[in-house]
Structures are given as structure tokens and as C-alpha cells.
Amino acid sequence: MVNAQSALKRILILQIFIALLLTFNEISARAEIAVQSSEKRQKNDWMEENLLSAKKNPAFSFIYDGKNSSELLPAWSRTEKRRSLDNHRVEHTITWTDSATKLSVKCVGVDYNDFPVVEWTVYFSNNGSKSTPILENIQALDTTLKRSKGPEFLLNGNQGDYCVAQSFEPFQVKLTPSVATNFSPFAYSGKSCDGPAGWPYYNLQTADGGIMLAIGWPAQWASSFTRDAGDGLRIKAGQQLTHLVLKPGEEIRTPLIAMFFWKGTDVVRAQNLWRHWYMAHVIPHVNGQPAPTISQIQVSGPQDTNTIPDFVKQVIKPDLCWRDAVTGGQTWYPSSEGPFQGGNNWLNTGTWDIDPQKFPNGFKPLSDWLHAHDMKFILWFEPERVGDTNHSFLAKHPEWLLPATGSTVGAILNEGNPEAFHWLTNHIEGIIKANGLDWYREDMNGDGPLPTWRNNDAPDRQGITENFYVQGHLAYWDALIAMNPGLRIDSCASGGRRDDLETMRRAVPLLRSDFQFPSQGANMVDGNQCHTYGLSAWLPYQGSGCYLNDPYAFRSFYLASFGMAGEFQVPAWKQAYQENKRVAPIVLNGDFYPLTSYSLAGDVWMAWQFDWAEKGQGVVQAFRRGQNNETEQTYRLSGLNPKAQYKVTNLDVDGSTQMSGKKLMEEGLKIELKNKSQAAVFLYEKVK
Q: How does pLDDT run across 665-688, given as a tens digit for each residue?
């Protein structure tokens, strides 16, 4: 009996050892995307020196009454508070006060202990009884980095969205001495991600690592990277224009700044660490769950309770039914009259009530039916732009409106006006509850509100309208979420032109760009492949829709949010929705590995891999472009366990094959596409 017990004990010990060894192998295989202790130390050291230190000026700056903050802050009184937000975040609030004018400057920083990330926002408040002197050139980020001898600073970033194939195109800039590299959205815009230089996320690379930077400001920001003659690099970012006095009781804020520190030379690893942080701390959560992957269709009204069952029977049960501004030639709000031509012209916004003639019972019958059948409902709004002031309730409150300019396509509802803010919040809240909305979709069309904001500013109040507007805009979304637990928000601004960090904390982009229609040119499909390639480094959650029914086209749109539109064809739509249903969770939760270079050329292959290590699942998507003459390519995969076996399934071939992680990573996955303009999708799963 003793011998049997001893043998059993040895077997149990051996099993535990094997389990630990397998676990170690798993961890080792994924070591390239694990946070390193040196990265956390680097973040801690930087934060201590540049935000928490009382002996050094903080990593922001401003000019007050003609004097630089570096001269002023050391002489002002300083207080510091610290509190724990949760298991992973500690908030530090540091306040400086000018005893003469009662201006207070409050920096609210958040330190993450599970990622090498620090973020902060700065607030300026007038606590005195008189207006302050001029406060100007406020930089939410103003810091100088030093590099050791070696390679130059390399700045990795993307273009913003401007409804072209080049939207979200990655770039790399070598920062040369005494030259400033500047970025901001289009000069007429006010939308945070608008234009070639309008992407507010960067990965600054040095010889032994780098820093990722993000600007959270759903309006007009500006950033600059300036090398000095030596080894220093000065980085500045903030609201583009500030030159203002603060009246008694007023408060403004800076854009949110986030810094993510990483070590090594692998930029892809760094971007995947960012994706992990994003899924943990940025993407909106409801009941502890991030925004889900969704399949979507467009609907028109209550009559869809008759047509949706046919779609479910023939294609798939959609997760989300989407009522846009115009469906079937009709808007859901009164818009038959207005300054923009044509009956039911969706540009005639501002009458934010459901048209009683078209929908006498509103959308509640439809949303009730959808909920009973385990589907959700989203409704389109564009509350900031008031295209029909003559026929809207808002005509009675001209003080709430910022007059139209040539680019705004209507007046702008001033969300910085407290009365307008409260009216809008309560009015839209009533529509949400009365109609059973699960998602609130917000759009912002026209060239942008920036000229209207600035036209409203006095010479000594430049930037104040925009600042109050941004605070009201974010507070409006926060109020809708607070009053409707479970509500999710879709952010759209003529496509993906408002995807900054503050916005992405509250919303996801179900439509990443308006560049999705066949009429937009022959490179529209290839351009969307490039959108996925460029945007996946920064935003795990993105969505779009396909209007073409061939697999090469609709496979170019597989994302966390996906839909088909245009000419209805049962086989094509069924294939597309079913395939995306399998791909989408991996695209959202996995690590992104480019397998080819970025290219818009028509004579190349483009391919990438998403690997969801926690589930042992992944997907490889490959595209042979229309002018390419090569029928085969082999791609070495990343992130796998070399000692594990994987079941590999080609969605165009029955059955599956089994390959080792070692072979997939060292020898690669061979893909054959016999035809031009052909796409392949491979799913793999670790064999248990």
C-alpha cells in the first residue's frame, strides 16, 4: 500500500510538472506581447520626474499674462492628492494656485499598474472675482525627450480619414534636427481625425524602444515634434488655438494625453500591447463586457417586423438593426422643408422628433419586436448640425445656435451653452426611452464646426467656444450613458473622422469611413483592405459595410461590425455574414500581425493575421489583387505555440489539415489563389 501511494504521489507530481511545463511553454510562446518589468519602471520613472515631482516643471505648459508656466508654477502654492480608482489605476491630482489672480491649474493624472501607461488632463479655473489676464498657448503635452547615441527618432503614425483609399495609411517619418514635424486635422474642420495629418495617435521609436502617444480631443488639436541640434526632441500637443481670459467661475480643460512606454525594437509587439491596453481600459464596457461583435442590417420602420423574419430565414439573424437618416427615400424626422433642396432631404436636420405621419407609434413596436427575438435596435442622430432652423423648435432659441458658415451645412447647436445642453440631453433621452433604443448613433456632417466656433470668439476669448463645446459634448454622452445603463454609442462624423481617445472611451466606430461605395472608384475594395491594415494597429473595434456581392469584395470588409447592403443576393450575403461571424471575435480580441507590406498597388498580394492567444484561435486573410500574376504565397505566422498542433481550415475547402505551431511559424502557411482579385480566409485553432 505504501509503495502504491508513493507511486501515485510520483505520478501526481509528474502531472503537475508537465502542466507547469506546458504553461511555461505557453507563456514563452507569447512572451513578445507580455508587459516587461523594465517598461513599467520606465513609465514610473518618467511619471515621477515629469508629473509628480515638485522640483521640476510638469509635462505641460502655458503662457499666463505674458509669462511662461515654467517661471510661474514654482512660485505658486502646490497641493497633491492621491486616490485609488480600482485595482489597476491610481489617480494623482496636483493643483497649483496663483494667489494674486486666483487662477488654479489642476493636473489629473492616472497611473496604470498593469500596463506601462500614464495619462493626464489639465484644468484651468478662475476662482477669483475678476476676469483673469490672458491665458494662451496652452499645451497639454510639452516635454523634451533625450535619446542615446544611435539611430534617429522615427515617428510612426497614420493618416486620418478623408473618404479615400489612403485613409488610415501608415507612415514613418525620420525626425531630423531643427525641423518641426506638425500635425492637425484639416484647417477648416474641427473633427479630430479629419485629413492626412489628422490621426491623433503616434508611436515614437528610438534605438531601444519607444513611446506611444494619444490625444483625446474631439475637436481641433495640434501636435509638433521638433528635434534640436543635439539629441533632444521636444513634443507638444494641445488645443490648436488658445488665447483667452477666464471669467469668474469659468473652467476650461486641455485634451487628454496618454503615454505608453515600450522596450525593444519590435513595433508590431508594441502595437499589440497597445491593443491589449485598449481592450482593458479604453473600449466602452457595459456590465463589465466590452462592445460586442455585431452583424447588422438596415431597416426602415415597423413594417420590418414582416421583412426581417424572411432575412433571418434566408441569411442570418442579425445582432443589430440599423435605422439610418434616410431609408426608402424617407427620413424618420420631419424634413420635407428646409434650406436644402428636395423632399425628405436628410440635410434638413434639427427637428429631432419622430415624424408622426410616417411613424404614428414611433419605433417602439419595432424595438419591442426585435427585443423579443433577441435583436437590438440603433437609431441615427445628428444633433450638432441644425439644417432646418425655420421649422424647428430651436428657431425659438437663436441664442443656442452658432450661425451657419459655408462649410457647416447648417447652424451648429452650441453644446457649450448650458441651456442648450440640458434641452438636448433631456430631449434625446426621451426619444431613447420612448423608442427602446439599444444603441445611439451620432453623426456629424459638413466640413466641420471649426469656423463657426472661431467666429463666435471675441479677440480675447479665442478658443473658448470650442473648449466649452467639447466639455458639453462629452458631458452629453456621459449623461445619456448614465441615464440609460446598457446604452452603447456609435461615433460617426462623415465616416471615421472623430475617433480620438476621449471619443473611443465612450463609443465605437460602427462605420470607420464613408469610403465604401462602388461608385467611389475601382480601388474602393483594395482601399478597404488597406483601411483594415492601417487601422488595426490602433483600434481593435472598427466596422464597415459592403455593397458588392463577390467574395473578394465582401471578404475585404470582415471586421468587428459588419453588414451587407446594395443588391440583395441570398447566397453571397449568407456566405459573408456567416464567415464574418467566425472571423469577427478573433479580429476584435486578437493580436494583429501584418504579413505583407502596406500597399495600394493593384499588382501585389496583401495579407495579415489575427491571433487570439487566450483562445488558441486565429485567422489569416490574404488577397491577390487584380493585376497580380503570382498564384501562390507562403506566410510565416506569429504568436503561436511552437509545440502545439493547430487545426487549419481554408473556408473555400472542405475539411481541415493539422500543422504544428513550429511549422506554421518557421516554414509558413502556403496559400494558393488561382484567380486574380481572389481572397482567402484561413481559420486555425489549437488542438487540445
A: 999 999 999 999 999 999 999 998
